[in-house]
Amino acid sequence: MAPIIEVKDYTWRYLHTTEPALKNINLQIEEGTFLGIIGPNGSGKTTLANSIDGLIPGQYHGIKKGVVNIRGKEVEDYAKGSLQRTIGMVFSDPEAQFTAMTVEDELVFGMENLGMTIPEIRERLAWVTELTGLAPLIDKPPYEISGGQKQRVALAAVLAMKPEILILDEPTSMLDPISRKQVFAVLSKMKQEQNSTIVVIEHSLENLVPLADRMALLYAGELLFEDETHHFFQRMDLLLEKDVLPPGALHFFHHLIQAGYYNGRIPLTAVDAAEKLAQIMKKSVEEAKS
Ligand SMILES: Nc1ncnc2c1ncn2[C@@H]1O[C@H](COP(=O)(O)OP(=O)(O)OP(=O)(O)O)[C@@H](O)[C@H]1O
Ligand SMILES: [Mg+2]
Asked: 79 with 145, same domain?
C-alpha cells in the first residue's frame, strides 16, 4: 500500500537564509502509524511539520526542492483549505489558534466549517469534551483559562474533526505531568479507535516512546535516522552523541549493556524495565548458588 505521507528528496531553505532548514529528507509514513519526531532546537522539526500540512510553501517564502505527497498527491496541488480536512495540526502555541469567544465555540468552529449537521456536532462535542476532560470549561472565554487548559482546547478542537492525519508540534509543552499523560492516552485512543496516522514532535520522551511505532531523529536539518522504536533505541550511542536524552529506564539499560550485565532488547517502559531487571537479578542469584 502507498504511504499516506511521503517526503521525497525534500529540501527547503527559508528566504534570506544561507543554509537549508531541511536537507534532502526522505520519509515515508504508512497509514495508522504513530511516528515520534525528535531533535534539538532548530533542527527543522516544525519546518517538516509545516511542509507536510501545506503551510510551507503556502504561507512562507523560500526555495524548495523535491516533493511532499499526501495520499499520493503533492501538497501544493490540493485546493486551498482542502488539505485541512485530512490533516489536523496542533501547534505548541495554542493562543495563535484561538478565534472564538468561548471554549465551546472554539470546538464547534472547525466542525461547522466541515459542514457537519447540528446533531452531529452535538454528539462530537460531547465525545471530545469527555475525552479531553474539558466539560467544566466549556462556557469560559479562551483568554480566561490557563496555558495548559488552552493547549487541551487546541487539541480537542482538532480531534473533534477526526482528521485522518494528526500532526502535533510539542502539544504538551505547557502541561503538568498528569495532563501530559492524559494527552498521550487520548492519542493512543485515536490511534486504536480511529486508525489515525499520528505524528508527534516532542522533547519529553517519557510518554512518547511507549506509544510510538516508529521514531525519527532530525539533526541540523537532516533526517539522521528513522526506524521502528525498538531498533531506534538500540543505537543509543549515536542518540547520546546527538544530545538525545532518553527516558531514564532506557538510559539505565544502556549502562547495563555496556557493563556486560545484559545483552537483550532495551525495554521501552519502566514496567518492562523492572521485569527485565528482576530476571537479571534472579539469574545472577541462581548463578551464584550453582
Ligand atoms: N520563518 C523562518 N524564516 C527563516 N528561518 C526560519 C524560519 N523558521 C525557522 N527558521 C530556521 O529554520 C531552522 C529550523 O527551524 P525549526 O523551527 O523548524 O526547528 P525546530 O526543530 O522546530 O526547533 P524547536 O525545537 O526550537 O521548535 C532554524 O535554523 C530556524 O532558525
Ligand atoms: Mg519547533
From this structure: yes
